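Page 47, continued from p. 46.
Same chain as before, 261 aa.
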Amino acid sequence: MHPMLNTAIKAARRAGTIINRASLDLEHLTIARKGPRDYVTEVDRASEEAIVEVLQTAYPDHAFLGEEFGQQGDENAEFQWIIDPLDGTTNFIHGLPIYAVSIALLHRGQVSQAVVYDPTRNELFTASRGSGTFLNDRRVRVTGRTRFHDALLGAHWAGSAGPDGGAARFRDMAQGCSGVRRLGSTVLDLANVAAGRLDGFCGVGLKPWDVAAGSLLVLEAGGLISDFEGEQGWLKSGDVLAGSPKIFTQMMGSLQPRPAA
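Result:
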């Protein structure tokens, strides 16, 4: 296992311990609102601080981009860690056990290491570029399902995607598959695509920390990922399609063009 991946695993598990401890006493959480349906707790901040401490101790010259504390260090650094300390905060504060820690390492702008840790199930998803995707040390691959009407998809269509196309853009996709699930944690959606539990995922308006680690999990598990134009601009645009190759192609084909302004 790559030493940088080992360090990221250590950081993710430390954050998971903080999250699990806090989950036992949710009534005493301090919760703040960052925006509509966007919450942050002291657990998010403590988790990110713990992750950065582990990574920064091992790699003091690396840069960091985290959901709670933003950019630390040179954003054009050779190595940059992208961190979501608790993806699924709304689930967490309601006691719904669907959330995860996400850590990705960019090397010269390309995701090279990825860790997604689900502390409630003790499930650890890991990937190193060129070395496959693993769930608790067992190699996993995307599903082999080929027929779109049998596919189960994950989705993040917040607010029906707003003015950039609305729900209508995804209607054919949603109606053509066997079902769409919105779990409330994009990093787990992508991890579940990599593990073959979901056949595909479609997300709108996501942030780099939502998709960086999951993207490598999907790719190393034999899947595909792109933006809605089939290009690799998803890390900046936040518009993401991911899935097994045959389902991904059909998802792309079912996506409606963006309405003219």
